[in-house]
Amino acid sequence: MGMSLTMAGDYAIRAMIHLASLPENQSALRSEISRTQRIPLSFMAKILRRLV
For position 50, what pLDDT does the model report? Predict the structure, then answer.
């Protein structure tokens, strides 16, 4: 039996991977993460609030 992940969970992991791939001390706009990771911008605000 495989593990299932919610869409929000998938988006959160993809956002964290994006942030982890940045050079040290570099930040990213949520619009950049949304665009590059193909995550709806409306979800990005909710996801990032929960991760902080």
Answer: 85
